[in-house]
Amino acid sequence: MAEAIKPGTDNKTGSWRARKPIVDEEKCVGCGACERNCPDGTIRVGINKKAKVDYDYCKGCGICANECPVKAIRMEDEK
Ligand code: SF4
Ligand code: SF4
Predict the structure, then answer these.
(1) What pTM does this model have?
(2) Domain of 29, in residue numbers
């Protein structure tokens, strides 16, 4: 029998991800380049001026890591 879809979790596109972006807060200068270039709007610069990823919806495309001018984002394989 097919597994039932859990209410409220079926739109969480983060489950598609093969790699995840990790922000190094020591390096992040809060420039917002990642936020402006993320196609899904899943990385935002917070009030602490550090970028934060919403892993429920980030698809792991790696654009944020490519666009970061100070290389503060690295892509890691999902376990
Ligand atoms: S990996 Fe892609 S989807 Fe995830 S935060 Fe970076 S740009 Fe957005
Ligand atoms: S692009 Fe890099 S330095 Fe700029 S806010 Fe994003 S993680 Fe921080």
Answers:
(1) 0.87
(2) 23-77
